[in-house]
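Example record for the data management plan.
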Amino acid sequence: MKRKKWLYIVLLIVLVVPILLFYQAFNGNPVTKYASKKALKSFLAEKYSDHEYRINNEFYNFKIGGYTYQVVQIGDEQQAKYEFEVTGFLKPTVTYDGIYYANLDTPLMEKLSEEAAAELTSVLAEKIPEIKDMYVQIEILKGKYAADTEWKKDLKLEKPMYINLTVDVTNMSKGGILATVQTIQQTLQAENYVYDRVSFNGNIMDQTIDDKEDHQSYVKYAIGFDKNTNITLNDFEEYNQ
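Corresponding structural encoding:
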């Protein structure tokens, strides 16, 4: 009789646990919901202590494995809505801050990004003439700098810049590509550039029809690194056309 009872218990667990896990994957659970909201309240109170906020329209976002909230500043006549995301099971953390992004100075960021990309291209071009494209992501809050501020590497940014560059590796061996990436890392370090991460795309350039100078290209090798990354051949992602 006891054996039969245990079989029923085991069978119940086998049936119920997957259902609970499936439900949690798309709907969350009361424990993480409470902890996530508490984490958001603490975040708002600490980072935006000058104002009070009301948290509205919370829902479990299975795409991020966490909760999405709509936050409104109390007393704000415009009643602007800010989106926040909180993820993490054991220690919920705010991973998207809508107030921060709403207050970024987009026009100035775009201007400085272009200037920074031009400077970096010039700095690297002597050693790496195969650079084809450079994008630099910069974040600055409104009011921090005047609209006509010019780029220089000692500007105080909200976060270290992110660099994305494309290099023509058509005539490079894999060892040559490794040396190129290491040169980029070493040059940025030697020139005292502060950055969060570099994304490197090594592209193969295929000449178009009619022997024109325009080229089509595709990513053959890709790698991401920061100043402390020990870059090796095994770190590269290699793609087929």
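Summary line stored alongside the record: Helices lie at 2-27, 30-47, 98-102, 106-125, 174-190.
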